[in-house]
Amino acid sequence: MKLHKGLVAAIADALRDIFVKNRQADRVVEQLLKSNKKWGARDRAFIAENTYEIVRWWRLVKYCAEMKSASETEEFWRLVGVWQIIKPQHLQKVHFETLPDWAEFAEIDPISIETRYAEALQTRKIAQSVPDWLDEVCEQELGKKWDLEIAALNVPAPVVLRVNTLKTSLEEVKTILGADLVSEVAGVPDALVLNKRQSMQQSEAFKSGLFEIQDAGSQLIAPYLDISSGMSVIDACAGAGGKSLHIASLLQNSGSVLAMDIEPFKLEELKKRAQRNGVTNLETMLIESEDIIHSLSQTADRLLLDVPCSGLGVLRRNPDSKWKLKPEFLENIRQVQWTILSTYSDMVKTGGKMVYATCSILPSESEEQVKRFTKSRKKQWKLVAEHRTSVAKDGFDGFYMALLERVG
Ligand SMILES: C[S@@+](CC[C@H](N)C(=O)[O-])C[C@H]1O[C@@H](n2cnc3c(N)ncnc32)[C@H](O)[C@@H]1O
């Protein structure tokens, strides 16, 4: 592949938006590709791939370029050039022979970059591209496991579909998409993984609600609630409803799903998705104050608390969150998780069950919160089971789920 100035300019602009204007990487790439219809499929793939790669390996690329930070367009051009030099070794991808002889790349010395790259590999936080504070927190909480986990979290994730059993079956979706293009996932009955990455949102099958895009680890959470037909289920941190829709399909539209959140725009998106999915047993409710929670005391057979978290378990899908996450956020979010767990749990009927879930690899957001909860509510709650998925261990995003029963 030959480097073209137009493509490098596009990647440099995207990086500037992400790192200087602090915009979300997936939005930036989506908007960039939409606004330039003249690029062909290969160009689009090149821009998206290289932008995400540089975001993922940001610290490593800057180290090799001997740059502390970047804010000017020419600095982003240089970083794109430096990435082209280290990429073949780093990702074992054959790319192109030499960097073009452009004025924008005049300051790049391939030999010193190779030397810096070899040095970088000696230090995990540079080689794996993580901020100092995050490397410390994860090492402290995970010990040796952190080495394997961060290496796996730096590999792009596959595209996984959840077949919507309200409308179709796994076999039917396999036939529609082509049985040789998808694979089943052991232990996750509605999941199909695409053998080759591609966007599915424009397909007719998606638009008619035959499947949703949802990681296999995430697909284990709704079934963990141990749902039976006719139950009333509350999903109290429903967001745009990935798991609410799954709950509705497990109920086969019987009983009820109450999807709650503090963000109205997420619930609006959920309503559209529910319609596309053929869901008829779901209502949404905006949490405007804690009074709403108290008014629902002892009403749910099942409660899902898919709490807000660091998102460290889904880093391979959102590599920019490595740079956007801050220690203060982590501290604050643990407090929010605790408040949700200790107050919202009251919505469960005695004899009912709840799942507390995070997409975090950190015990402090997960196991430790549940331990603290069961210890302080010994007479009311008992832990039935807990489970973790891990990119390093099973190839799924890093989710934690605990099933608890209300006994008093
Ligand atoms: C991990 S996300 C949920 C993802 C969603 N369950 C899904 O499957 O797509 C956490 C959600 O909690 C919501 N949230 C944050 N604080 C909350 C609170 N105090 N009460 C309820 N929801 C809250 C956020 O708006 C966010 O949508």
TrEMBL record:
Domain of life: Bacteria
One of the record's GO molecular function terms: RNA binding
Gene3D superfamilies with a match to the protein in the record: Vaccinia Virus protein VP39 (3.40.50.150)
Active site as annotated: 359
Pfam families referenced in this protein's UniProt entry, alphabetically: Methyltr_RsmB-F, RsmF-B_ferredox
GO BP term, pick one: RNA methylation
UniProt keywords, alphabetically: Methyltransferase, RNA-binding, S-adenosyl-L-methionine, Transferase
Annotated S-adenosyl-L-methionine binding sites: 261, 306
UniProt xrefs under CDD domains: AdoMet_MTases (cd02440)
Chain ranges of the SAM-dependent MTase RsmB/NOP-type domain: 149-408
Bilayer-crossing regions: none
UniProt cross-references to PANTHER family, sorted A to Z: NOP2 YEAST -RELATED NOL1/NOP2/FMU SUN DOMAIN-CONTAINING, RIBOSOMAL RNA SMALL SUBUNIT METHYLTRANSFERASE B-RELATED
Family, as annotated: Belongs to the class I-like SAM-binding methyltransferase superfamily. RsmB/NOP family.
Protein name as catalogued: Methyltransferase domain-containing protein
Organism of this sequence: Dyadobacter luticola
